[in-house]
Amino acid sequence: MSQQPLLEIAGLKVTFGRGAASADAVAGVDLTVAPGEVLGIVGESGSGKSVTMLAAMGLTPKSARIGGSVRFRGQELVGMPQKGLRAIRGARMAMIFQDPLTSLNPVLTIGAQVAEALRLHNPGLSRKAAMARAVELLALVSIPEPERRVRQYPHEFSGGMRQRAMIAMAVANSPDLLIADEPTTALDVTVQAQIMEVLKELRERLGIGLVLITHDLGVVAGAADRIAVMYGGRVVEQGKVDDVFYRSRHPYTRGLLASIPKLDVRQERLQPIEGAPPSLTSRPSGCPFHPRCPLAEARCSSEEPLLRQVGAVETRCHFAERLDDPEGGIVVPFDKAPARKAVGP
Amino acid sequence: MQQYILRRLLMMPLLLLGVVTVAFFLSHVTKGDPLSSVVSERQMNNKVVVEAARKRWGLDRSLPDQYRIYLGNLVTGDLGTSFRTKRGVGEDIADRLPATLELVVAAMIVGTGCGIGLGVLAAHKRNEAADHGARFFALIGSSIPVFWSGLILLYLFSVQLGWLPGAGRLDARTAAPPFVTGMFTVDALIAGDLQTFLQALGHLILPAFVLGWAVMGIISRLVRASMLDVLNQDYVLTARAKGAAELRVLLHHALRNALIPTLTIIGYSFAYLITGAVLTEAIFSWPGIGSYAVESARALDYPAIVGVTIIGALAFLLANLVTDVAYALANPKIKLG
């Protein structure tokens, strides 16, 4: 795509705390989202995926220090005064969160909350007109009986309905970009599919660019155009969905893929990635994944790999070339790991 | 909702009967002879006078008899006659209660208004200078005894600076405005007498502040704590993500939720102050119900004691009811029924 990217994040750093106790939750992230594109950001908890997007919205807590650059339609957001950010937030760039049970204000009606999103950015809009528009928005996200539902409170909505209401609120001002932070994680499986359907439909109908933050590869597989895999506050691999799924060059991505249960392959046990993700305060030297990586060599603990194009994907591994394009599916390097044998059945 | 309120109101006489019974018997159990306030000291040795007084005030009857008679009168709205003032207790209370109500309402406006404001400020500026300042100010208010802060402020603002009038409800030469509610500020406004209104308001400022300052401490602490809790909730993040300005996030989204747990203490404080503002009333020569209660207790003035108790109990019952209704209005998850 030759047009200007919608969102362009470059060298983004988010640091919490000061001095010796400081921790980089995000340690230099580069990402772009084109207009109308769906970018999936995948990673374990603590990988920095949510903080990255909160920082892009200017919603990190006051204690966080932000470095690098976030450009939205060419406009720099890092360092922009709150007033300017507020005009963009909820209007051009909206966000929905993981837990719809707690993301809606319990003392305000659904209608009041959707109408507020409208009136904040359209000062001339009357209360009545905003409410009428709120009804339309609830209908847009397939909430039945929207005229009755706008007058209800969040506790009268089911989880799936609340997430729909959140989406209605987020798209109220037809934003260019919608950031969905684990939008289906807290929901039942059947409801998850419905919410993904709503998001897909909206994207097609309104041409919204979508950032889908998730730890669930299954969610992005069906919905995203591109995927960025995050680990230890960095993007470790990114590329088109199919390329990341079938032509990954990073041992972490392959580990993630191998840990998905499959219906078509008989498996006695799932294959987890051994170890735990690095804590924020004690990040390993060199490549942050090396303590858990089956391919790790001495170089990995001293020298951090750069993000580079290898085959179809951009990846951040010294030994990316060793992970050839697998034939007929995913080759998992973890079979060689000695730790796996020890825990075998 | 209306049904619920009606049911609660209908329950009240029953609860009051319990209160009256306990108050009646408790006050009669105390040692001491109420006749000492009826009969002058010199006549106390005169058997004839004492017996006549005993008979006149019904003290020669058995306690159950006295109780029966009292209840019978009470049903007709007669609270009995005070031993001390020789006036109807109902009349006495009607005289005193408006003064206290005026003081307590003003104090609650100061206390809750500033308390909520300080609490929100402290939570918003958590661990910054404004937070420490607000908490210190509130702490002083709730820990300094009212008789001390009252005297100091009276000395400073009235005697030294002369900015505010001294004790009393009005200047000595000003006549009270025509009686409507008994609250001078309100009555002066009704009479269209701006001069008297301003004067009554001036007299109200110091005692209301002193009393409200004490309430402010509790309320601001509670509001701060529950604001901090609420500000961490996801829906606050949602509000920010919508593009709401900080003030709107604080007041429209966070405070509405944070106030729910605070309602209880506001209702309780109000009810407590109706009979509990004794010290403030004493320092500011405020002829309220609190000082009436103390004077009556010292004179073993049974009818007055029970009368004041009824007023205090009624204040608590009504404050509780209002709190419960306010709770239901503030929190849509609560349905009264």
From TrEMBL, chain A:
It is a peripheral membrane protein. Keywords: ATP-binding, Cell membrane, Membrane, Nucleotide-binding, Transport. NCBIfam families: oligo_HPY. Belongs to the ABC transporter superfamily. It is found in: Cell inner membrane. It comes from the Bacteria. SUPFAM superfamilies: P-loop containing nucleoside triphosphate hydrolases. Gene3D superfamilies: P-loop containing nucleotide triphosphate hydrolases (3.40.50.300). The keyword Cell membrane applies. One of its GO terms (cellular component) is plasma membrane. This is Peptide/nickel transport system ATP-binding protein/peptide/nickel transport system ATP-binding protein. Pfam families: ABC_tran, oligo_HPY. GO terms for molecular function: ATP binding; ATP hydrolysis activity. Coiled coil: none annotated. Residues 7-257 form the ABC transporter domain. It comes from Tistlia consotensis USBA 355. GO terms for biological process: peptide transport; transmembrane transport.
UniProtKB/TrEMBL annotation, chain B:
It is found in: Cell membrane. It holds the Pfam family BPD_transp_1. It is a multi-pass membrane protein. GO terms for cellular component: plasma membrane. Residues 97-323 form the ABC transmembrane type-1 domain. The chain crosses the membrane at residues 103-124, 136-157, 204-223, 258-284, 304-330. One of its GO terms (biological process) is transmembrane transport. Belongs to the binding-protein-dependent transport system permease family. This is Peptide/nickel transport system permease protein. It comes from Tistlia consotensis USBA 355.
